[in-house]
Amino acid sequence: MNLPNDHIVKSYDEEQHRLVAEIVRMGEMSVAQLIAALDVIERRDEKAARRIVANDEAIDMLEQQISHDVMRLALRGPMARDLREILAGLRIPADIERIGDYAANVAKRSIALVAMPPMPQVQGLRALGRLAAQQVQRALVAYRDNDAEAALALRQDDARLDAQYTALFRELLTYMMEDPRNITPCTHLLFMAKNLERIGDHATNIAENVWFLVHGDAPLPPREKRDETSTVDHA
Amino acid sequence: MNLPNDHIVKSYDEEQHRLVAEIVRMGEMSVAQLIAALDVIERRDEKAARRIVANDEAIDMLEQQISHDVMRLALRGPMARDLREILAGLRIPADIERIGDYAANVAKRSIALVAMPPMPQVQGLRALGRLAAQQVQRALVAYRDNDAEAALALRQDDARLDAQYTALFRELLTYMMEDPRNITPCTHLLFMAKNLERIGDHATNIAENVWFLVHGDAPLPPREKRDETSTVDHA
């Protein structure tokens, strides 16, 4: 790819558009990974799970590529032009990259579950995962459309995901207490649930970056508290 | 702070040095938070734990500040000058910010533990935490000194932290199986251990950014595998 291509250099705006589209595409890859991960838990399909883990590499490489392109564009643009666009263009892919990691970890843990008896909480876990996938989707749309209101709304809804996570967390603890043989599989489900809750947090981060893109450093409205499992002192 | 200060604008190099020092300072704050968090687990001191959680805000704000300053500097510098320095200057603070979050979460969970009977595995957890703190310290020194060899060495040593995490993880599972009353406190310790293992991963990320600073996109040597608890299928 060493062809001279200066004569086909895109305008700053065109390149900025292309990058936003690339970031959204990257985000969709991470959502697809998450949905595939939720699917293999149900199907107990080790080969598919390994494929998801391997696919995470593509997202990681895309993040590297995008951050380089964003920086190159930044260095080309007029000084104060869009610090915000540039920062968002670096931060959002970093969040997406983490979402991809969590999705891959869910798939990886599902491999360990294949050897264990089916757990009734898997349904709750999948519901949590679908909600997390929805939150990421909404964040990507808000980013694409530069829609601060939509970003704010999904940020508020993170509380729902947290509540669902907390309920599942308590259910898993109870199930572990009923029978020690449940402890190992439940521990995997606990970490998988935690991964999904973290994906929600990254969707919230993306939303906050969209707010920042639109409103600059104007303070965000307060919102409901996060999950409370860190302070659970009973089962 | 609206004084005209153009006449005291620092040179690009001076500003770059100041930013590296700021990033190292930010890293040291996160290490201090981690050490304080390990300390409150031992002392079972709820007030101190809450203070650590509140302090995390300062690290978050510093990351915002640093990323703005790095970008402003980037937009000032000559074109291709140092894409690498700039990217590292944005990525390393993001890793440090996450380390601060994990330290705060360890402190938060220690609050829940105060109400529970003391657990023998707390010593192992603290040892794991000290190793994680060491890894972060080494990463900061490698960054400050631009030392790719030191970065590589600490990256290799992440396998030790992973091994220690895996051992503690198994120990906690066994302890849960012995008595259902151990399940709730052990779950907190499991998540705290996971946080510490993740801190190690972020130290590794910092190390990889130091490698990238020195060697550009030259591939990193292969290294030992990460923790294996995602695939534990027995206790």
TrEMBL record, chains A, B:
Keyword Cytoplasm found: yes
Single GO cellular component term: cytoplasm
PANTHER family in the record: PHOSPHATE-SPECIFIC TRANSPORT SYSTEM ACCESSORY PROTEIN PHOU
Family, similarity comment: Belongs to the PhoU family.
Stated role: Plays a role in the regulation of phosphate uptake.
Annotated NCBIfam families: phoU_full
Name under which the protein is recorded: Phosphate-specific transport system accessory protein PhoU
